Nuclease HARBI1 (Schizaphis graminum), 126 residues
Amino acid sequence: FLYYFSYTYTLDLSDRKFIQRYRLSKQLARRVITLITPYMSVPSTLGGLTIDRKVITALRFFAAGSYQLDVGENRHTFISQASVSRVIEEVTNAITNPAIFNQFVKFPNNFNELDDVRTGFFSKYK
């Protein structure tokens, strides 16, 4: 019951509140879940954390940019800090899997490309 309530409640947040809490839209969160599901482990027990819940928990940690304790004590997740730590590692490993990571992240290959990135950044954000 607790799991169902917490996860349903999270997805029932308004779009605005979801973005405030997770720093991305529900649509993008669902896309992340879909992309990394093949690289995640399924729950090994009946009460184990689902992939959706793992990803939502990790996204909250990434959005908060701070302590796992905040995520673990959050009334929307109901997950211990130790479990949050394991979830963050698993989700991070899935996201950084080369099959996913290389689709979205490109590092400059030489100094000319690096200079182009710097110039583009400074012209966009000065």
About this structure: DSSP finds eight helices and no strands in the chain. The CA atoms of residues 72 and 110 lie 42 Å apart.
